Amino acid sequence: MSTKSDRYLLVAALDFGTTYSGYAYALRGDFKTEPLKIQANQAWNSGSSQHWSLKTPTCLLLDKNKEFKSFGYDAENTYSDLVLDEEQSNYYFFNRFKMKLHKNKHLSSELILEDVTGKSVSAINVFALSIKALVDHLLELLEKRGTGMSRDDVRWVLTLPAIWTDSAKQFMRKAANKAGIPDKNLFIALEPEAASIYCQYLPTEKLHGAETGFHMSSAGTRYMIVDLGGGTADITLHEKLPDGQLKEICRADGNDCGGTSVDNAFFQLFVKIVGAPLMNTMKLKEPGAYLDIFRAFENVKRTIDTTTTGKVNVTFPFATFDSLCQKHLSESFDSALASSKYKGDIIRRGDKIRFEVDLMKSLFAPTIDGIISLVKSVLEKREARKTSLIIMVGGFSECRLIQAGLRKQFPKHRIIVPEQADLAVLKGAVLFGQKPSAIQSRVIKTTYGVAMTAKFDPTKHDQKHKSVIAGVEKTRNLFDVIMKENSSVPVGTKITKSYSTTMEKQNEIKLSVYTTNNAYPKYVDEKGCYLLGEIVMAIEDPSDEKRWFDIEFEFGKTEVSAVAMDKKSRQLCKATFNIK
């Protein structure tokens, strides 16, 4: 029997990125005959001739009441105008805030974000309003085209880094729900997985670097997906199975060597010329000029190559820089540049600043080294020994310096960059929404367990965790393992554990779920163990008798879930899994 969530008409993917965000969509009926008939919005307008993108910046502007004002390029440009009119104090401007969830082990709905001026807003609201902006933009487009579709007719797919914690995934699910996406219609797609699925459908001529006759669809093909976005480098290893599904053969790994790390190096270069206070003042007081120089640098990131010689030109808001230098440093920008360590490597010509190519390339070096180190560490794993193919996706993968760096470091591996690599995740997420069964199995990246109390055994348990309960010596906070890290499990793998009431008339059971990367966890309060959340199971008709319940944990999907059942009546119980 089909459920309401199965009766969708359209799949829409939301790629909520660190620097840029966008959406793509496809009709359900087109998948069988034209799987790549996927449309991405092309109406994002930067208001500038210097930059064009199929995505819009991940920027949010709120009014004085912390209510939505604008998103993307509109938010950037409106905020710049507000600053010119000295009205910015009544607004909240957020950009590049996605990384606040990266590696955060203690996420909650109470998390607070500060805008560019230090004013605070609830993080869940910032994320929810940003997601809602993308949703509303698509729904408005569908309405203009007369489709008659509502948000309930859409299967929504939200992309997230594979290396993110369960808490971060749950946080984003809550934000999407708050943005108006029905929970039953929402799928979470892992970014490198989505790109991997996308590559399955591309012909060889769209896979730049593949030899003639190569097919991604060949059973037994093993390859690495290197997803380079704005914030993270995210890696996964896949094997193509005979039935066409994909098997993850090594748990996802990654770091924060995304495109913004090069932006930070570019920023620090100017800090060494004019100082951090001036650069921060420019960011706050002259955001238009600040945006212009980084939009210009974005083009450099995509076009600079190992063969580039001479000088690299970057369009430069000279008047603003010079005015700030005169005001805060009592000297011209040219004077500050002439007295800096870069006086022989950087010159200004009108509204262009010209960099010696070696200096510009040096800004990329630490990031390239970090990506190479990450790829090398994954390839050294036992599971990766038969991997000879590396596929680069994500907007930052289009940087030719990175492509050249990987090709030089890994000459025995074939490096492939698919056409429209920056849209591989987005379009792949649409394909995942059309066919979630594309992934056959995944590798668990952390150990899961629940806090358990057991009879105290002095030969096994330490005194620190001993308690006397109803006259009986007990051991508290034992780590009862449910699923171990690095386990390869088919999607939908279910593990059942039984738990009982401990008191008469008990009306609920609470279980604290923990995660750890410790090899042999013993107690949930030891270093390296983190509270993931709490399962709260309501007990109908509480009685004096001891009641037993089965809790079924499901693994292998992009999110962990749990359901509960009364062992005697076999009735499902109301249970909620609240991620902390």
TrEMBL record:
<dbReference type="GO" id="GO:0140662">
    <property type="term" value="F:ATP-dependent protein folding chaperone"/>
</dbReference>
<dbReference type="InterPro" id="IPR043129">
    <property type="entry name" value="ATPase_NBD"/>
</dbReference>
<dbReference type="GO" id="GO:0005524">
    <property type="term" value="F:ATP binding"/>
</dbReference>
<dbReference type="InterPro" id="IPR029047">
    <property type="entry name" value="HSP70_peptide-bd_sf"/>
</dbReference>
<protein>
    <submittedName>
        <fullName>Uncharacterized protein</fullName>
    </submittedName>
</protein>
<dbReference type="Pfam" id="PF00012">
    <property type="entry name" value="HSP70"/>
</dbReference>
<keyword id="KW-0067">ATP-binding</keyword>
<dbReference type="InterPro" id="IPR013126">
    <property type="entry name" value="Hsp_70_fam"/>
</dbReference>
<keyword id="KW-0547">Nucleotide-binding</keyword>
<comment type="similarity">
    <text>Belongs to the heat shock protein 70 family.</text>
</comment>
